[in-house]
Amino acid sequence: MPEPRPKDARIRRRRNPTPGFKLLPHEGRTGPPPEWPLPTHPDPVTAALEARKWEELWTLPQAVEWERMRDFGTVALYVRVFVEAAMPMADEKLLTQVRQLDAKIGLSARSMRDLHWETDEPIPDEPDEPTEPPKPRVYVPRKP
Question: Is this structure's pTM higher than 0.85?
Answer without folding.
Answer: no
